Amino acid sequence: LANQIAAGEVVERPASIVTECVENSLDAGATQISVDIEQGGAKVIRIQDDGCGIAKDELPLALARHATSKISELDDLENIQSLGFRGEALASISSVSRLTLSSRPDHQEEAWLVFAEGKEQAVTYEPVAHPVGSTVEIRDLFFNTPARRKFLKAAKTEFQHIQTLIKRIALAHYDVGFTLSHNQKSVLKLPARDSRERRIKDVCGEAFAQNALRVETQYQDYQLHAFVSKPMDGFTDNSLQFIYVNGRMMRDKLIMHAIRQAYEGMIPAQQHAGYVVFLTLPTQGFDVNVHPAKHEVRFVES
Ligand code: ADP
Ligand code: MG
How far apart are CA 48 and CA 12, in angstroms? Predict the structure, then answer.
């Protein structure tokens, strides 16, 4: 029950599951991540990576609540480098779906699949064929919480959210390859690139990549690396607005507001700027432990 309550905060919709799992793959050092979706994620969400994998005897911990391999002491909490640190995503997701985790680290000959069931969340092991890396497969989302299942939108809508999300994550990790399929049809292929510019072209389109102004600036320990549209190149919606703080995607009100102010009076009403903004600052300069789904950070000196 506690896991299901936590799932209420972490698992808003299929796209939130994809976020958590893809972030886990990135934390595991993956260079290739494939995401396969069926029926908008209500039926199947499968994320496979070629990351470091999980040793057999640590698999139950990966599914256990409040278990993380990413921080081990209080001081670490003020210096978080990884995308995850709360140790509750897999436990939460597993409590509202049928989740299996398959994995093989490279020091281990065989791969194992685990899943948790029942009130005690007892973990069952099965041998499985799997290359080095991990696969998380989530079936029948919300099968045991029918009230929440009703909040799922049409498969097309849920898939759209997933697709947008993969693009957002991919922008910040240009050196990782991503593939996305829906109902066995390939929808998105973003090969690993050797520059940020190339990935921006893949995701935001040729026109944006060519016309955007590049901003590269530094103030004390703060670095800003951004691609911003010229005022006359406005867009009809705000879908080309991406903000990252230390590689973490954000919808940060403070930064959004600052950008809006910068464009004020230059961009026609009803039009939107396009921007991809990467802000990098010392980890002590902000707190990521603010929101269960990590949508927000709190800046020490806003
Ligand atoms: P968190 O990411 O906050 O640590 P999660 O519930 O997302 O918590 O994952 C729990 C643990 O499972 C992680 O700390 C990590 O050790 C392990 N794990 C999950 N997914 C992967 C993966 N794709 N590759 C390697 N390890 C993983
Ligand atoms: Mg995680």
Answer: 21
Q: Is 25 in the pocket of ligand 1 (CB under 6 A)?
A: yes
> For 207-224, what is the mean pLDDT?
94
Give nearest CA residue, ligand 1 atom 13. 68
The number of C-alpha atoms within 13 Å of 46 and in the hemisphere containing its C-beta is 14
CB 44 within 8 Å of CB 37: yes
For 58-106, write each residue's pLDDT tens digit.
Answer: 999 999 888 899 888 888 877 888 888 888 899 999 999 999 999 999 9
Does the pTM surpass 0.85? The reply is: yes
**115 touches ligand 1 (CB under 6 Å):** no
Return the axis-axis angle of helices 155-172 and 196-204, rounded to nearest 10°: 160
Q: How far is the CA of 263 from the centre of ligand 1 (A)?
A: 40
Ligand 1 midpoint to CA 67 (Å): 9
Those residues whose C-beta lies under 8 Å from the C-beta of residue 290, and which sit 6 or more positions away, are 296, 297, 298
Ligand 1 centroid to residue 115 C-alpha, Å: 14
